[in-house]
What we know:
Elements: E1 2-4, H1 8-19, E2 25-28, H2 36-39, E3 43-44, H3 54-78, E4 85-86, E5 89-93, H4 96-111, E6 117-120, H5 121-127, E7 137-141, E8 145-146, H6 149-162, E9 166-169, E10 175-179, E11 182-188, E12 191-194, E13 198-200, H7 210-213, E14 219-230, E15 239-242, E16 245-249, E17 255-258, H8 272-285, E18 293-305, E19 311-314, E20 321-325, H9 335-346
Parallel strand pairs: 1-2, 1-13, 2-9, 5-15, 13-20
Antiparallel strand pairs: 3-8, 4-8, 5-7, 6-7, 10-11, 11-12, 14-17, 14-18, 15-16, 16-17, 19-20
Helix pairs in contact: 1-6, 1-9, 3-9
Amino acid sequence: MIIxxxxxxGTSIAYQLTKAGVKVMVFERGQVGGEATGxxxxxxxxxxxxxxxxxxxxxxxxxxxxxxxxxxxxxDRTGMDIGYRAAPLLHVALHEGEESRLRAxxxxxxxxxxxxxxxxxxxxxxxxxxxxxxxxxxxxxxxDHQVMPRTLARVLxxxxxxLGAVLREGADIDRLLTDGDRVIGVAIGGDAVHGGExxxxxxxxxxxxxxxxxxxxxxxxxxxxxxxxxxxxxxxRNVVSSAEGYMLTKPxxxxxxxxxxEEAGYDARPTAAGIAGLLALVPRLAPRLADATFASAWxxxxxxxxxxxxxxxxxxxxxxxxVAAGHFRDGILLAPITGEVMAxxxxxxxxxxxxxxxxxxxxxxxxx
Length: 368
């Protein structure tokens, strides 16, 4: 089987397939985890609201549940640590209007089984002394975690290769090879590589195959900018977020500040305005970090879809080609479960969770 894309999604699928004894080749135009995966903050959070479809919440909860065992399994296989660590979330209210919204949000989440506590100003500052003392209260999510996202993709790729997968970085696929209504492989330059199945898992670039498949693939790039800081002392103990953005300290000691959500096409540049807005958030949320050293800035292109749901499954009207793309801001969170359910689909086993809501056929109709 041929997998196009080696981000968290593509490498997770590759790993699960190779574990099942399938021969796999993975093609990545750049480096493993070099696009949206490497640009993300790597948070493993379950934070649904009234607009979150039940199918998505179910997928999120199951994928988060898989992470501890996956982290241990990958460490045992490769000796490499994906950075899976506890990262409790504090979502703070800085003014009265935010406080009212958070109370209503918590009431809904408690009703739907989310582990979230309401804590007052004093308790918030006990948990996170670096925070703005003017905060009013916060929602506290004690069960959230984080990983090092690019490391996750690299370790999944390493584990797959160790099990026999072939990985080609810097391999930009020119076209899909077809025979009637069947995709039979890919072409790279003058080379043709044949496979029993091609899995499109190249995130925001999945739509590049629309013309070849005579099928609209509604995955678009949504830019997210990030900044990283270095502090002389300790960083944040928790992930801290507000209506304006978030901050978290990674296992390597850097503190990330994020993120923008921009419709900017395939422009993956961090901009002066975008980064300035993120840095302005630092003294408002955590004044003690206002004198931290600016370390770097970057941007990634998240794969968004028109209805906010990923595409998981086979294309209607075609054989030998499937897609796993459009995870938007949940690519890291959903990587473990996506790998498992796609491996099930490709092996023609019934996936453990219903995937009807993510079927590409919901708006991918083969053109006449």
